[in-house]
What we know:
mainly alpha; two-stranded antiparallel sheet; 9 strands; globular
Amino acid sequence: MTVAIILTSALLAMVTVLALALPAINSATVPFGVRVPSRYAADPVVVGQTRTYRKRVLASAVVVAAATAAVSAASGEALLLPLSVLVLVGTWYACFVLANHAIRAAKAAGGWFEGVRQATAADAGRGGGPPSEAGPEAQPERAPFPWPWLFPALAITAATLLIGVLRYPSMPGLLAVHYGADGMPDRLAAKSVGSAFSLVFVQCGLTALLAVVAAAVHRSRPDIDPAYPVSSARWHRRYTAQSVKALLGLVATIDLGMLFSSLLMWTGTVSTWAPLAVVLPVLAGVTVAAIVLARNNRVPDDGEPDTGLTHVDDDRFWRGGLVYVNRDDPALMVPRRFGLGWTLNFGNPGAAMFLVGVLAFIGLVISIVAALRLDG
């Protein structure tokens, strides 16, 4: 229970800090997912909703933490602790939706886009694309995919396999294939190739899946600011490259956590602190990735003169400021409006195919692991 409390407290703190920081991290021209002209970025409604959002998030974090502590102490169920993180994320997005609706209403009532010159811009290459009223799409010159950043994950997976092969003869006859939140094994399986190497199969599948996601991010469409097209195109190339590297680094830390988990299973180690060896590498990877994305999530001021143009008002394509649905946009992935990273264009048929492929891939890995364990 102590380990679960420590990990849950760390996750709650991380989610709360990220939620409080996002309004300052995201672009000033899309407050809470609403596209606004730059002169309205500091409108009293936007400022007021930002302040109210942060108060709501902070109050929600206090209530969720207190309620979870009370219920867990009364019931003794450690499972309730991780669920509190999901509850906090849900309340966080509820706070976002309230702010999004309020700013949308003010924008519509005030006619914020009346008389504004709207345009789109494309990254035409390393020099940046010029703004265009018509918004023609240009094919940017892409940097090569950073394959060396995938090598640590592959090396850790290969090391896990090698260590397992070497230790297989001396493994216990019964392997702990699952641990509870208290660090004690709650499910055992007879030693077999399937049970012993189940996490290696998961490592291979997860590494391949996240490598595909990283490749999709690498090829994602940039969101170029027509007011500052050159600096914003330059920033997007740099941000994409750093994000892909952060994602591949996260893959390596997840694989490292599964290596430690495999070692616990193969050696028969039982300790209430054992889950820390599994979770801490993953938690560290998530933290580093979030910091990298947060520090570089806004276009820097490079002194480029303002063209006088602003983004096209495209709120109709963003359902609730979170879900992007645009059948006329060929892009599969686009930058998020609120939050870090990218999201799918659900108006692109490829998005459904991508999600089905991901779910099928996950199901296949789970089925193979379950079948191998049963055979053992």
